[in-house]
User: Which sequence fits this backbone?
């Protein structure tokens, strides 16, 4: 009998003397041998349960049993990629209840008595797909596909419980999943197409029965002989392209006519065995941890009596986080979900009694429909915004109370209502604790260690008593509150019946102290005071005394948090007064102070409002094939295709579904981490530094190496002994595989632990002891600190100058603005974290990786492992997102993994956790721009004169791609505007952050937002309307940019796109709506902005503009393509399939693009710069044409009617090669820019044209966005966005629209909710310096489902064929991103209106991003001043 491991005495954990020991009460309980779990209707056998432990998550359990459709995205329940359904028999209801859960948190042992349903169980491409899977595929609802299984499962759970679910219900509960690719619109379409009350057309009418469809001006997607809109071209096969919503499109196809009622949901009928299992308790003990799962309160109390430090687990959303991220070790865990006495809801005449472990969603559902201001109204509205549906399905009130989070949403609500908890222990019985008295200090409560929370009694509101919930976070859905509050007041008539007075009140807050706190001074002040605006204004002063946040408070934002508290109190006053005015009317009661209509908007809050309905239209020209660059060139003189499929359209131009779409939706698509580890495979975990700006003194791996299951700890010296090179870096080799001496950033890789399991490797990595010395006195973290320390990368110092700057600024009447503008960084937040598996062989190594750069990965794995490149093959199946983050920053993971595999001689897999990925891999560069710009009135129009700008970026501790990122920002600093003179200078700052890197747009967006900020300031100062100012300064055809590139004839489409965007948005109507709304609402304002864009397409490094492809034609007429690009969701493989299908004249389904593989196509370029379709489409076409030329004699011999299969078969017997390697290089005169070139005096072209022609062409477009801002909280919503895009002649309109929508929403996120916080001079509370605070979805907030525009319209322009790219298409991955900044400037427009109304006369610079804090603190009102912020206050940020 071996003793179980004893935990650290300071860890807060406990230990059993022997893991076999257990209390007598559990001797007859079921054991681990008797656990009964079904998965997808099949009972799990002993061999599938053998590795389950008390701490095994459901996700680990499922994946270890081959169900890899359930993904690991964050391990903290914040992204939804791991969503599974847990179905349990509800005895009380006599039915099965399906609950979506976060499998990354849900304990596998808690699934005892349940049927777990995964995406694989819903349906399969090999059999029948579930309606959600079918419709998601057809609506193009997946791109990278990594998040898709979780979304499919979450959506299916809604309809499993209610096949007649309404749009409202779906909108309320799709709040627990993140999609980084799509922008959400097609996913909303999928969900709503299944709703019982779905609107069937963009206008709300079923298009197929629309009486006015003949006048419809919307291009739509499906054929219908009965509809002929006036804008449709000639009929095709007796059908026209007609308008159709998703619902119409799907219902027109018989395959979609199945309802949920007609389909067997997995596991139905529910196994009889599971109906009995749940009533019997069980216990399991493994690895020194014991789990008890009682089903009676008596057993629970006995366990807590014997093990008072045991943790009770219900939702595991707190305990799971503590164990994963806080290194807490709990040796006794007690499941609380099956104790009937702790669940349920009862209602008395004056209160609600909630069982302590009742799921929060059950409580929210019970409270639906409560009167405004009542207890159920407050509870339901607070809960619907708490965390996510998946979390609420398992979390409980007891969990909220016991964990005592200082930023809990429900704890202040319960405290404000004076709720009472009943707690019980075996030794002392029951006692009652008032919630306001429960919280003693940070994470410390009045609950004794042997006590259990039994229930919570919440009083009902009485007459003229009101309760309202308040919260504000970075993002509305699934976000931790910055400040949260529950507020209650009971009013009564004054003795003389002249007014209402405050008889009782309670104000409770989270986020204002180390615990949930009340505001006693405020309540005391209000007692017996009249309920008037004047009284409440004075009460706000008392509130500031109640909540004295110091400026150095952990979490920062003291001014904002103080302001929110005051704002909430004001909103509460208005909300109560509005309701009181209704309740006290006509009852002989005293008069109520009437709130002016313009002030009533203060009563409105997202917390108590219904979630918006998301709608939109997608318009594109009738699909057509238009030859492009390939036409007429000698090399690419395209022979005619061999055959055309009967009755089909061209392959190019069709909205074909993603090549892997169905696989995404069924969970069958495999990613690197899904590839099975060979039988002798090992798991690796990187060892990271915890400091920056110091030297390594020593690394002691002995404790780790002594742990059972650890194979090896590999350090720098081991790499050297194995003959490898420690150098890394895409441009400058200034990085290391393993740190050798200098520690340059927090998270720097110091070594690799290789072990039998991932859990062992992770524990061992923590056990490696690292000592540091020679700490820098000044650890440079920010741009400002770098400038002060003169810390730069000299090779990145570049300047472009055109025109006479001095003369332009000297123009008479010139209006000048100057200043500094700051732009935040952005985390890539690809859903699939970096993963590599290296498999050594007798000759070399195969590297499976998630990377945009297979060749770069190959070369550095070979270098680090001491192998020649020809013995290392890199394979890349697909990525779960990349966005530039896996162009270079995946390589260090792969290199470390390769060293590990080389040294131990066994396969090794390394997968980064989300928090580690975010801390180590770098982000979009933060920028600071220092500028001076001028404009002048000419002939009644404001015209741009000059701009002089210096750009500084935070490059981190190694150069990576920061140089070319800065260069691209300089190339885009002109925007779409003609400046008479322009000088731009850029240099990269060297700091102690990790190396920052490529991100969608590659510096272009930073340049674009900077110039738009400057143009916006000039328009305001010149007192001209910003939209017309922009339009009157557009480039014209024939103009040259500041870097010397001329807009050639027929290539400049920004003016037209701008006009189209104005028409599509109905801008004049929108402006009238906004003006009317703003005049009627003091505390909510609307604003709008138009943003045009051009984005240069090409690698600015000439040598990178090349690509290869390998094409095989098989004798059955099918085609296999391998090319140098990688698929990360952008649809590259799909477009290449269409190009090849078009070339051969076959159906799209006859072509397949294989995995990226350096042994098939060598010496590839990273998939980046939006260039991949241009390069690999052309390379594929070149290979196809080579084969077609060889086939021409056979085709002529067999005749026109011969199929490709017949031709290929005949060619084979004629010994004609049916394979070809295609290659494409962008013409020398259309790429490359030599920064070092100097003029020789013979130049005749535009300024700087002698340096080169950096871009092949420009992708262009324009966007209109309209927003609404809550001035009291900083919350905002995007009401509408209209995007018009020039994508040439689209190869695949659906994919292009998906790229536009996804990039746009990602740009919106960068401009609003996504803020990176580092340990720098602005955030001294983040320790150590250089640590990223915003790690994981708990602190970093990409846009959620609720954040896309409520109306989102996208139009692809017609008649804009592009002769410089394959089949007249244009690159689209990056260009739309910058249009997301239209939301930023719309917010600024709304704030300008608000500040003018508030009397804030000072010009205000809204720094980027426009977070809720920056929005609120820009208003310049009295409440903000009371919080410590004047009209010119600037929120802190990390730049």
Assistant:
């Amino acid at each position: 009998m071996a003793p179980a491991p004893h935990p650290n005495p300071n860890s807060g954990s406990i230990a059993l003397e022997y893991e076999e020991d257990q209390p007598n009460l559990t001797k007859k309980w079921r054991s681990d041998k008797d656990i009964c779990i079904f998965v997808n209707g099949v009972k799990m056998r002993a061999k599938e349960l053998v590795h389950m432990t008390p701490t095994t998550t459901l996700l680990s359990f499922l994946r270890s049993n081959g169900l890899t459709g359930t993904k690991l995205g964050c391990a903290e329940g914040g992204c939804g990629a791991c969503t599974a359904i847990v179905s349990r028999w509800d005895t009380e209801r006599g039915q099965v209840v399906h609950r979506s859960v976060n499998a990354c948190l849900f304990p596998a042992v808690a699934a005892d008595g349940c049927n777990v349903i995964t995406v694989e169980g819903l349906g399969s491409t090999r059999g029948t797909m579930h309606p959600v899977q079918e419709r998601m595929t057809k609506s193009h609802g997946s791109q990278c596909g990594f998040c898709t299984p979780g979304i499919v499962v979450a959506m299916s759970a809604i309809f499993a419980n209610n096949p007649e679910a309404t749009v409202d219900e779906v909108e309320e509960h799709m709040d627990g999943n993140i999609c980084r690719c799509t922008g959400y619109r097609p996913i909303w379409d999928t969900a709503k197409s299944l709703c019982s009350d779905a609107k069937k057309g963009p206008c709300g009418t079923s298009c197929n029965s629309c009486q006015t469809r003949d006048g419809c001006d919307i291009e739509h997607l499906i054929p219908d002989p009965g509809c002929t809109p006036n804008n449709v071209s000639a009929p095709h096969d007796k059908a026209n392209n007609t308008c159709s919503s998703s619902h119409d499109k799907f219902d027109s196809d018989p395959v979609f006519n199945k309802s949920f009622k007609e389909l067997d949901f997995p596991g139905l009928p529910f196994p009889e065995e599971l109906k009995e299992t749940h009533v019997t308790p069980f216990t399991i003990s493994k690895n020194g941890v014991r789990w008890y799962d009682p089903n009676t309160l008596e057993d629970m109390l006995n366990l807590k009596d014997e093990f008072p430090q045991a943790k009770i687990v219900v939702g595991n959303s707190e305990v799971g986080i503590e164990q994963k991220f806080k290194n807490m070790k709990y040796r006794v865990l007690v499941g609380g979900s099956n104790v009937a006495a702790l669940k349920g809801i009862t209602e008395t005449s004056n209160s609600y009694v909630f069982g302590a472990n009742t799921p929060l969603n059950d409580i929210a559902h019970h409270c639906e429909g409560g009167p405004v201001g009542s207890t159920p109204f407050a509870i339901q509205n607070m809960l619907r915004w708490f965390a996510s549906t998946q979390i609420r399905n398992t979390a409980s009130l007891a969990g909220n109370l016991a964990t005592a989070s200082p930023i809990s949403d429900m704890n202040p609500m319960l405290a404000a209502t004076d709720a009472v908890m009943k707690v019980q222990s075996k030794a002392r019985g029951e006692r009652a604790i008032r919630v306001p008295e429960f919280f003693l200090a940070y994470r410390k409560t009045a609950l004794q260690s042997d006590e259990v929370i039994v229930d919570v009694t919440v009083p009902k509101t009485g007459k003229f008593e009101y309760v309202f919930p308040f919260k504000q976070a970075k993002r509305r859905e699934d976000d931790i509150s910055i400040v949260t509050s529950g507020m209650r007041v009971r009013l009564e008539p004054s003795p003389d019946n002249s007014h209402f007075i405050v008889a009782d009140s309670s104000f409770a807050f989270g986020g204002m102290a180390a615990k949930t706190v009340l505001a006693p001074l405020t309540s005391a002040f209000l007692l017996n005071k009249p309920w008037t605006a004047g009284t409440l204004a004075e009460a706000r002063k008392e509130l500031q005394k109640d909540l004295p946040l110091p400026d150095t408070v952990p979490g920062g934002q003291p001014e904002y948090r103080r302001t929110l508290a005051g704002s909430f109190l004001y909103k509460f006053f208005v909300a109560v007064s509005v309701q009181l005015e209704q309740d006290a009317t006509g009852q002989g009661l005293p008069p109520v102070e009437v709130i002016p209509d313009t002030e009533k908007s203060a009563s409105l809050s997202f917390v108590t409002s219904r979630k918006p309905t998301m709608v939109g239209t997608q318009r594109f020209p009738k699909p057509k094939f238009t030859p492009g660059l390939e036409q007429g060139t000698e090399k690419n003189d395209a022979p005619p295709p061999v055959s055309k499929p009967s009755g089909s359209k061209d392959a190019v131009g069709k909205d074909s579904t993603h090549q892997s779409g169905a696989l995404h939706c069924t969970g069958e698509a495999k990613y690197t981490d899904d590839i099975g580890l060979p039988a002798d495979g090992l798991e690796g975990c990187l060892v990271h530094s915890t400091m920056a700006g110091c030297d390594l003194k020593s690394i002691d791996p002995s404790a780790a190496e002594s742990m059972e299951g650890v194979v090896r700890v590999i350090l720098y010296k081991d790499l050297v002994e194995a003959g490898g090179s420690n150098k890394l870096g895409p441009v400058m080799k200034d990085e290391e595989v393993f740190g050798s001496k200098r520690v340059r950033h927090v998270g720097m890789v110091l070594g690799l632990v290789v072990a039998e399991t991932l859990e062992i490797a992770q524990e061992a990595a923590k056990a490696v002891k690292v000592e540091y010395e020679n700490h820098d006195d000044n650890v440079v973290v920010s741009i400002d600190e770098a400038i002060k320390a003169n810390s730069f990368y000299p090779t990145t110092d570049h300047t472009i100058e055109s025109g006479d700057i001095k003369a332009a600024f000297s123009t008479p009447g010139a209006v000048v603005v100057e200043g500094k503008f700051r732009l935040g960084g952005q985390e890539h937040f690809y859903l699939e974290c970096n993963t590599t598996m290296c498999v050594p062989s007798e000759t070399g190594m195969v590297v499976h990786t998630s990377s945009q750069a297979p060749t770069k990965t190959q070369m550095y794995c070979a270098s680090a492992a001491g192998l020649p490149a020809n013995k290392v093959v890199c394979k890349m199946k697909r990525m779960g997102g990349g966005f530039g983050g896996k162009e270079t920053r995946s390589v260090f993971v792969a290199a470390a993994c390769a060293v590990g595999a080389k040294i131990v001689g066994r396969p090794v897999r390394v997968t980064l956790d989300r928090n580690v990925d975010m801390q180590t891999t770098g982000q979009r560069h933060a920028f600071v721009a220092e500028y001076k710009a001028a404009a002048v009135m000419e002939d009644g129009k404001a015209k741009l004169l000059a701009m002089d700008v210096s750009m500084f970026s935070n490059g981190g501790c190694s150069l990576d791609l920061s140089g070319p990122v800065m260069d691209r920002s300089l190339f885009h600093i002109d925007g779409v505007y003609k400046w008479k003179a322009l000088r731009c200078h850029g240099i990269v700052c060297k700091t102690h952050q990790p190396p920052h890197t490529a991100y969608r747009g590659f510096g272009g967006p930073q340049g674009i937002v900077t110039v738009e900020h400057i143009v916006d300031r000039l328009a305001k100062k010149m007192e001209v309307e910003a939209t017309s100012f922009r339009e009157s300064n557009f480039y014209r055809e024939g103009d040259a940019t500041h870097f010397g590139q001329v807009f050639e004839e027929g290539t400049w489409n920004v003016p037209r796109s701008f006009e189209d965007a104005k028409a599509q948005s109905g801008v004049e109507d929108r402006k009238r709506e906004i003006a009317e709304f703003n005049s009627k609402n003091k505390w909510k304002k609307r604003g709008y902005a138009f943003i045009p864009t051009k984005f240069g397409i090409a690698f600015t490094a000439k040598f990178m503009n090349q690509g290869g492809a390998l094409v095989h034609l098989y004798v059955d007429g099918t085609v296999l393509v391998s090319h140098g690009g990688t698929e990360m969701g952008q649809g590259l493989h799909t477009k290449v399939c269409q190009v090849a299908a078009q070339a051969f004249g076959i159906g799209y389904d006859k072509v397949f693009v294989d995995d990226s593989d350096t042994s098939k196509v060598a010496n590839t370029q990273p998939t980046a710069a939006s260039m991949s379709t241009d390069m690999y489409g052309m390379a594929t076409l070149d290979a196809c044409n080579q084969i077609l030329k060889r086939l021409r004699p056979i085709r002529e011999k067999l005749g026109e009617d011969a199929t490709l299969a017949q031709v290929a078969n005949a060619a084979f017997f004629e010994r004609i090669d049916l394979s070809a390697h295609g290659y494409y290089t962008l013409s020398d005169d259309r790429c490359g820019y030599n920064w070092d070139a100097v003029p020789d005096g013979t130049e005749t072209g535009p300024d700087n044209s002698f340096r080169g022609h950096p871009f092949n062409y420009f992708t262009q477009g324009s966007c209109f966005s309209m927003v609404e801002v809550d001035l009291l909280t900083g919350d905002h919503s995007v009401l509408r966005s209209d995007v018009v895009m020039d994508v040439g002649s689209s190869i695949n309109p659906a994919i292009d629209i998906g790229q536009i929508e996804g990039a746009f929403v990602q740009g919106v996120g960068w401009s609003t909710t996504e803020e990176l916080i580092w340990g720098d001079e602005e955030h001294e509370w983040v320790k150590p310096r250089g640590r990223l605070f915003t790690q994981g979805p708990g602190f970093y907030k990409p846009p959620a489902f609720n954040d896309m525009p409520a109306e989102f319209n996208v139009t692809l322009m017609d008649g804009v064929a592009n002769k410089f790219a394959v089949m007249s298409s244009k690159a689209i991955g990056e260009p739309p991103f910058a249009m997301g900044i239209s939301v930023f400037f719309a917010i600024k427009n709304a704030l300008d209106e608000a500040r003018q109304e508030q009397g804030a006369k000072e010009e205000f610079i809204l720094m980027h991003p426009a977070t809720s804090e920056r929005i609120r603190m820009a208003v310049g009102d009295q409440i903000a001043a009371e919080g410590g912020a004047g009209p010119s206050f600037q929120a802190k940020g990390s730049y």
User: Anything to note?
Assistant: The two ends are 57 Å apart (CA to CA). DSSP finds 40 helices and 49 strands in the chain. The mean pLDDT is 92.
